[in-house]
Each structure stands twice: as C-alpha cells, then as structure tokens.
Amino acid sequence: LRTKNGFKAPLYLKIWSKQIKAVKANSIIAKRINNINSNNITVFNYGISDINGFDEIYLSTSHNQGHSLNVDWPERFKEVFKKREKVKIKVATLDSLFKEEIFDFIKIDIEGSETKAILGGTEFFKNNVNAIVQIEIYDWQFEATNSLLSKYYKYVYLPIVNFNQGEINIVELD
Asked: Smallest Cα–Cα separation from 158: which of 144, 139, 172?
C-alpha cells in the first residue's frame, strides 16, 4: 500500500512482485510512481483512513519524508515538520479501494494513521487473512495496532533490531 517515496515500487517489481497497488496521499509521490511507466503498477492518489471523503494532510516543506494525516505527528516529530503546510486531500478506506481484491503481501507505512486504516479495512483484512502484512509503527503504537489486527491474523512477529551488532531477530508474540 505504500512505497515510501516511490523508489521501492520498481524494486519490488524487479525482485518478486507481479503487480503493485500503491496508495499515495502525497500527489508529488503519486506522480513520481506514475512516471515509472509500468503496466504492473497502479497508483491511487488517496490517503488511507477510516472514512471516505476529504481530510487534511500535514506536509513538511523542510523534509522530504514528512507527511501525515495524524494531527499529532507534527508535534511529535518537530524536526521533520519544522516548516509545514496543511493540504486538503481525498481519503478512502481499504474496503472501498480493495474490498474484493486478494493480496499476497501488504505493506502499511502511513505515518501515524495505521489504526484508522485497519478500522476502514474490515472486509479487506477478512479477505486477506493469508497475506503477509508488514506494518511500520513505533513501539508506542504497537498495542493499539496489534489489538485491531489480531482479529484477522493468528501470528504476530516483532523484529528486534540491534544496530550495534547488525542483527535482526524475529520474535513470535503470543
């Protein structure tokens, strides 16, 4: 569902994906992915939420990765959002965009709006119980995210990264 700045989409296609559906709230990044000119990438210029309609996104004008629908994000990440603007964008639920589609791999990295995405994807997640779901969240987001996803997925794994030793350990959670 997300390729950070549009650079991972061609990489995923080259390595293992046959088809990519990328949802990008930031229209600049959506255009960048569209310019890849591949029949195997479909870009949806929406923010993912628990409603269909419009919302305001915070866009950092001082950092290339700063954008979020989460109103708390600019305060939480002051360095990234030192200079910012609010822009009205279209938002949609996972159910409205992909209700009938089946995915093998789902990547969600939507800067603080993960729980809203899950709440707006009840049918989506029911239809994709066999998918591998990768969600990039901070430690303090884990409990809320896990409590919502545990309705659909039996197994949860947490990667523990030790940057000093260059190791990643995968821990299965109960």
From this structure: 172
